[in-house]
Amino acid sequence: MATQQRISIHGQWSNRLAFILAATGSAVGLGNIWKFPYITGMNGGGAFVLVYLLCILCIGLPLLMAETMLGRRGRQSPINTMAALTAEEGGSPIWAWVGWLGVLAGFLILSYYSVIAGWALAYVFRAASGMFTGLNAEGINTIFATFVSDPERLLAWHSIFMVMTMIVVARGVQAGLEKAVRYMMPSLFIILILLVMYASTTGYFEAGFDFMFTPDFSKLTWEGVLVAMGHAFFTLSLGMGAIMMYGSYLPNGVSIAKTSLVIVSADTTVALLAGMAIFPIVFAHGLEPASGAGLIFKTLPIAFGQMDAGVLIGTLFFVLLVFAAWSSSISLIEPAVAWLVENHGISRVSASVYLGVSSWFLGIASILSFNYWEHIKLHGRTIFDWLDHLTANIMLPLGGLLIALFAGWVVSVKSSYEEMDNGRRGYALWLFLLRIVTPVAVILIFLNVSGLLDWI
Description:
Layout: H1 16-27, H2 30-42, H3 46-74, H4 78-89, H5 97-128, H6 137-148, H7 151-170, H8 173-199, H9 205-213, H10 222-234, H11 242-247, H12 256-284, H13 294-306, H14 310-344, H15 348-368, H16 383-410, H17 413-419, H18 423-449
């Protein structure tokens, strides 16, 4: 087939492991480290985790395989891949816009994601300097409030992180993306394991384990089930073009099914390890496990300031956050960079700079929403809140739904079967999940997070 002979002009991963590390890096982000423990605490602990794992298998895995399949078959940026495959399959030209939706979502997410990643970068140095040592909750809150109220300081850390992202992306597939994740992802796992080992010495490790893995379904609501489905979807970076882009660099002959299963397993392991590292520390210091973003920047520094070796443990934790954010940020900008290179004939360096600076500039609005513009709200949301809501709660679920429908119903069985090597039964199960189960589940998620479910 002509499509099977396409080779990406951007290069390819050198091997299967490189793709696994890169795709896992895209999936593992700030959400795995702080959001998963937070929503677990809010939705019944072990029962929520059980439903989340089920959703990962029934929703996340089929969509991950679908995006990878489309990417490898198209061998281009998501925009050009969707256009090419639509023409090849004889579908409506409107499907080509799915690629634009994903690339735009990734670009918008990077603008505010870089701001929060800048916080994590700044807190590496605050933890390493011993700033948290001996401080109580009031002192920690003062540090955080002073930090976010200073737009110049936030702009500086936002700028540093964006430059870090642009440097990696500008270097290309093997010299940049692959080399970065080759070191970042193993380092992330090592740091997480060290933190879990420390958590096991707090005397509250069993309490943390029971909280996460002992189901109590009386605490799980239908809303909690929907939250679990939503997080299973978002945590794998689905619907934003990142996995489709990385899939375009995947060599022929590499099993999409087996590789996707490894990525899902690694991403889920990181989330579970993060919970096992955080909850025992939280319980040991009498802190609140359902504290949201404050769990990272307000609550945990209290624990780091009081524990033995708190300077070292705190520094490692925020280094972990930076690695997680960095590996995700490079995947957010890569699809747009690839499209500029393909369609306008400019170098990767120039494309990375143009898009990085544009996203950086948009990020200034998010920075100001924490200080000078914090009182400018629309329906109770700041600019930062609206960007987060628009991308995470609308654009990504819509993109994932459209990808499931396109891969399941528009792409012919013959074409998708050529890319898959999971056997007839495995392929039939994947196609059923993609055509029926995944779309229904994503529609429920979309209705829930959009607030439309209340009207049904």
